[in-house]
Amino acid sequence: MVLSDRDIKLNLKSGKIKIEPCDIDVQVSPVGVDLRLGNAFRLFKTTHRSHIDLAHQNLELDTDLMEVEDGGEFMLHPGEFVLGITKETIELPNDIAGRIDGRSSLGRLGIIVHSTAGHVDPGWKGKITLEISNIGKLPIAIIPGMRFCNIMFEPVSSPVENAYKGKYAGTDNPLASKISEEFKGKPEKQKEIG
Question: Under a CB-based contact definition with an 8 Å cutoff, are residues 64 and 82 in contact?
């Protein structure tokens, strides 16, 4: 089940779901809330490594954080992949999950808003990192502050026992993958299995 606009507004007004800043009258859609593109982007350096080593590499060192001022634009080239972030900070209770999806108007231009990680765990607090790609044929100027994606809310069957407190909690900037942390302290054989 997905929350309707009526239930979303009730949850926002009561503070059960928190989105800051949020203009309820403008951003709430029939089954979600429109989120805007933030000012921070994390770009991958592509010229100094032969490959990504998931088990041994600090991926933060292989990226650059870039800030685009309000009124500016970020040029997303064909085939390019960058991490972006929402302007809004989201806080979910232990009994509601979120699901991020792209906007149809951007999808029709070839912009993918999230490559794989579209769900937001119950207990999440922070801005949402966006996995942005341009699969179209032309560069596209994306603008901080524009409506960029939508979050839908799904009640879970019961409050979760372990609300999200993972490695990306509380983020204010797009963070590089921290997958290498999952390999720390594991024997080489386990690393191969995954």
Answer: no
Distance CA 177, CA 93 (A): 25
Map out the domains of the chain with their CATH numbers.
5-47+58-174 (2.70.40.10)
Kindly list the catalytic residues: 131
Distance CA 15, CA 11 (A): 6
Reported as a single tens digit per residue, the pLDDT across 95-140 is 999 999 999 999 999 999 988 878 999 999 999 999 999 999 999 9
Nearest to 148 by CA among 124, 135, 129, 125: 129
Separation of alpha carbons 137 and 183, rounded Å: 37
Chain segment 173-184, per-residue pLDDT in tens: 888 878 888 887
- For residue 54, the tally of other CB atoms under 10 A from its CB is 14
